[in-house]
Amino acid sequence: MHQTFDAALGINLLHANQDGADHNRACFDAWGITCFNLMSSPGAGKTALLEKTLAALSSELAIAVIEGDMTTELDADRLRQYDVPVIAINTGRSCHLDSKMVAGGIHRLEHDYTPSALDLVLVENVGNLVCPAEFEVGEHAKIALLSLTEGEDKPLKYPIMFQEADCLLVTKMDLAPYLDVDVRRIEQNVQQMNPRATIIPVSAKTGEGLQTWFDWVRSFRAQHSRLQVEAEQTLISPRL
Predict the structure, then answer these.
(1) Could you give the CA distance from residue 36 to residue 124 in angstroms, rounded to a whole number?
(2) Phi/psi of residue 37, each to 5°?
């Protein structure tokens, strides 16, 4: 069976992107950085979540943000108020960040800051429920956001993002009294495709669930940091 030209081109693009993602991840590992890729549809609350995360954790973790947007720096400007490095990447007509774009952000981090002094890089991807999940950028964990206003069926209609997510944040929980949406059904729809995902209902407005999210970030960062140290020790240990 022969592949169509479009199918072969898509596979080649994904392979090339994966090579770039592996290179980006190697850079993060060499600097001792943990990287999260935040993905959602437009308006699900990625930037609001990042604002709360930077306010809560930037005093204990050295954090930088790579901020993806199609045309503006509006979200990047919101995050710069927290006095952390924020690298803005405009994707133009592209509906997602890819590894090459993030490599450009890494280059700017290396040129303008000291990456080895960072603990965490948060990548805010372009708002889209499809493409970002297919193109790795070098992250160590994928964080998906789904707002309560989007309904219960989105994990079933757009499965790839939810299948790939290490953590799902169900956002805008403060609107629950006004919506005919069952959070348990959302959780069930995700778990039937991805039982390993951690699911955390949150509200950036009321603070619901944010402490659980912060603890998840701390825990993942600590565990990943230990793995990085162990891997480095294995590389430098003399062979017997």
Answers:
(1) 9
(2) -110, 110
Residue entry with tokens 């169900």: 170
Which residues, in sequence order, are CB contacts of 47 under 8 Å at separation 6+? 75, 78, 79, 124
CATH fold of 5-143+207-229 reads Rossmann fold (3.40.50)
pLDDT tens for 82-128 read 999 999 999 998 889 999 999 999 999 999 999 999 999 999 999 99
Q: What is the pLDDT of residue 122?
A: 98
Report the pLDDT value the prediction gives residue 14, as an integer from 0 to 100: 79
Contact of 24 with 138, CB cutoff 8 Å: yes
Residue 7: per-residue pLDDT: 42
| Number of residues written out for the chain | 240
Q: Quick check: pTM over 0.70?
A: yes
CA-nearest of 189, 183, 188, 146 to 167 is 146
By C-alpha distance, which of 46, 44, 26, 45 is closest to 35? 26
The packing angle between helices 210-236 and 46-57, to 10°, is: 70
Read off the pLDDT of each residue in 57-81 and give the average, rounded to a whole number.
97
pLDDT one-digit tens code per residue, 163-204: 999 999 999 999 999 999 999 999 999 999 999 999 999 999
How far apart (Å, rounded) are the C-alpha atoms in residues 136 and 24? 10
